[in-house]
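Protocol step 4 of 5: obtain the predicted structure for the target chain.
Materials: sequence only (see below). No template structures provided, no constraints applied. The aim of this step is simply to have a reference model before the mutagenesis design in step 5. Sequence pasted as it appears in the construct record:
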Amino acid sequence: MKVCVLGAGVAGMTSAYFLWRAGHEVTVIERNAGVGLETSYANGGQLSYSYVAPLAGPGVLPKLPPWLMRRDSPLRFSPRLDFFQWRFCVQFVLACTTAQSEETTARLLRLSFYSRRLMHEMVRNEQLDFDYVKNGKLVFYSDEAAYQGAVATMDYQRSLGCEQQALDRDGCVAIEPALSHIAHEIAGGIYTPSEDAGDCYHFCTSLERVMREGPNPVKFELDTQVTALVRSGNSIASVETNRHPVAADCYVVTLGTHSVFLLRPIGIDAPIYPLKGYSLTLPIENARAAPQVSITDHKRKVVYARLGEELRVAGLADITNYRADPDPARTDVLARQVRETFPRSVDFGHMKTWCGLRPATPKGTPVLGRTKYSNLLLNIGHGALGFTLACGCGKIVADLADGRAPGISLDGFTLR
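Step 4 output (structure tokens):
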């Protein structure tokens, strides 16, 4: 079967990989000159399979007013005359209930554990080079109440299959000695030894190499902008691009935030709005002062991942627009956090900054599976979990394209 995958970020590349391994003739269309060059390019680097609880939760609502008024807050809102922005915000607030948060967490854990198994199989079976490491993850808390809430959440997640440990201040420093100088600020932490890390961009380029060099190689149409989906009854007949039309038997949309502009003209309203995120990539100068395990600063919502000889620092979320234009004030916030948390660990003189658009849904669950068109599949809306969920979501759409039942239930992930 001929399958056309629209988009070459991590969602598109894993979708193409599993379709290719299933024996299909796959074409990937990407508007950039290479793969993985947008939201996947410099993301946080953490494969956080046990940390998938949605941003929308009951504990978020009291924090929103002070967050939205501070320039250095983890979440910033720039209101616009945009119906879809305000709809997202209203639906997000409505999702901030304990019942909805727990239901979403259970669904995402089911998907993330499935994705973890597939990632581990892929790493064993393919020659991939993306600074992959199984180094565990430590989330530390500066507030005692927040820490106790995390312990309660850990007990809930343990019932769903997570293996985590609650640590006091000394336990956190024992796991990550680079935190010793701020030990007085730490109330406690949650450590998960099963978490991984890797460079998402190099994961994408490694998959590209594997799919180009293998039998029945995948065709990549780069520098090609998808402009429209052409309908024929209840199916898609072809894809219009800025170069030429592309026809296939099946189409998979993995265009992240920009999927909405392709889908709305054909009557599909995906509940996605971008959360602009930021990252820094810094060469490590002092290995002992830099973290060995993946770190999340819960209070500041900043993540740290060691990728080879570099430290990736990511965080913040701006609800603003559809442009991935960086705000220097926001990258300055991240740089200040690095200096305070891991001083004398990295070379700021060679710091690389980046920002990207996380395609978020109000509840925090991706949109997967079939549509009202018989040969159109969706793999979109992963938010900050695109890398973590990529393998599971890619395998799901490949199974659906083959007419097979996916490996897990899609309850809560499909379009209503």
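Step 4 remarks: The chain is about 30% helix and 25% strand. The first strand starts at residue 2 and ends at 6.
Proceed to step 5.
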